[in-house]
Amino acid sequence: MHRSFRILTALLCTSLLAPSAHAAGLKVSLTERSQWRSPLTSPQSFDVASRAEIAVFTEVLADSDASTEVEGNAASVAKWKERMHKVLVENFAKARETCATGALFCEGSVPKDWETLVATSRMGLAKLPADLAPWYAEQKPFYQGYLYELVRLAGLFPKTTSEILPLSPSERFGLELPDRSFLLTFDDGPTSPTPKGGTDAVTAMVRAEGIHAAFFLLGNNYETRRKATSVEQLRALYAGMCVGSHGQEHRSHATWAGAVAGMESFHAKLAETLPEGQSKLTLFRPPYGQRNPEILQALERAGMKNILWNIDSQDWHASTTGPKAAGRVLSLMLLWRHGTILFHDIHPKALEALPRIWRDTRGSGVSWVDCHDE
Predict the structure, then answer these.
(1) Rounded (10°) angle between helices 43-63 and 3-15
(2) For residue 31, which of 11, 327, 336, 355 is within the disulfide window of CB 3.0 to 4.6 Å?
(3) Cα–Cα nearest to 314, from 68, 29, 70, 97
(4) Closest to 284 (Cα-Cα) out of 311, 259, 314, 255
(5) How far apart are CA 176 and CA 172, in angstroms?
């Protein structure tokens, strides 16, 4: 067995005992992505960087066969792996559309299958210019850690559900969005009122950028904020944004017996404070992404959508800094090429990370989806 996969499997075996993606002690993979020297100032430069990121993750995934000797649900890991292969092949083809003669990872025909993508990635990485060696040295360990995160979640599924795989075709992860399109989302608010941080600062910053983001409110925090301010102030706080539900309590909605009742009670209150421009409550996100068929049936009855994600900033983790959250999200935007990005407005990292992400992608062809279109 390949050495990197032996390490991955050993880590996975240990982590399968953890109850959730946010379990204490679990490491997350971080990068500042500081060694890529070409700014993403055009669709072409975005695609060059995208091809490079896809190639590194493809190499890492190919070197660590994630469906062999996995402790946990091997069938789910195999399903995830098949899904990931398809995503990577499609994304690399998109990134090849702007290829110019002699550009990185543009040699030969466009890969149509996983095996050809692996060969193309290895060939391109073997020919990397010397000035990209520091970038490769920074990003390969990041993707090895990221692969571990994904395989861990796949091994737990469906006993412990998450964003790794769908339970229903109706669920939205962001992969249905157009190429280079991203939906910005925030969980766990609102925070106590303060102009220098928390939800107030995040909504003001996002609004100033002209972006309409989705905020998934937690019932307990909502009630605390509502008592401290007013319905009118809550509406003003989320002006221009979309308000969604994160459930009454931050507990697994796959195992909590009171989840549906808590949702229904909270949703009735939340509907009273929707911002102008939002006529009804339609968006829901379960804590940790954990849900079951009963939750999905309740959402269907209420005419609501389950909004998950495919790009996690991991800003909740103590080791995540603003620059590392930005580097991680930028790397994954280039890898996935479209999707739903998860931040938390109760943590300060987004206030530092998002301005860099916006700065570094301006002019790159990236568009920010209006949450009202979801």
Answers:
(1) 90
(2) 327
(3) 29
(4) 259
(5) 7
- Number of neighbours of residue 57 by Cβ within 10 angstroms: 26
Q: 233-259, pLDDT tens digit by residue?
A: 999 999 999 999 999 999 999 999 999
CA distance 78 to 69: 11
- Report the C-alpha gap between 278 and 242 in whole angstroms: 7
Q: For the segment 182-215, what is each residue's pLDDT rounded down to a tens digit?
A: 999 999 999 999 877 899 999 999 999 999 999 9
* Spatial separation of the C-alpha atoms in residues 54 and 335, rounded to whole Å: 5
For residue 372, give the DSSP letter.
G
Terminal Cα-to-Cα distance of the chain (whole angstroms) = 44
One CATH from 3.40.50.300, 3.20.20.370, 3.40.50.150, 3.40.309.10 for 181-373:
3.20.20.370
Contact 373, 187 (CB under 8 A): no
What is the pTM (predicted TM-score) of this model?
0.94
Instruction: Give the DSSP H or E segment for 367.
Output: strand 367-368
Residues forming beta bridges with residue 182, ordered by sequence position: 339, 368
d(CA 335, CA 46): 11
Residue 39 in 3-state DSSP? coil
Q: Which of 179, 236, 186, 239 is nearest to 216 (CA)?
A: 186
Of 354, 345, 355, give the one whose Cα is nearest residue 244: 345
**How many Å is the Cα radius of gyration of the chain?**
21
Please count the other Cβ atoms lying within 10 Å of the Cβ belonging to residue 196: 8
Q: What helix, strand, coil percent values describe the chain, rounded to 5?
A: 50, 10, 40
Beta carbons of 289 and 161 less than 8 angstroms apart: yes
Q: What is the DSSP string of 246-299?
A: --SSSS-TTT-TTHHHHHHHHHHHHGGGPPTT--S--EE--GGG---HHHHHHH
Q: How many CA atoms lie within 13 A of 33 on its CB side?
A: 27
Peptide bond into 158 cis (omega under 30): yes
What is the sign of the dihedral through the CA atoms of 145, 151, 154 and 156? negative
Q: Name residue 55's amino acid.
A: A
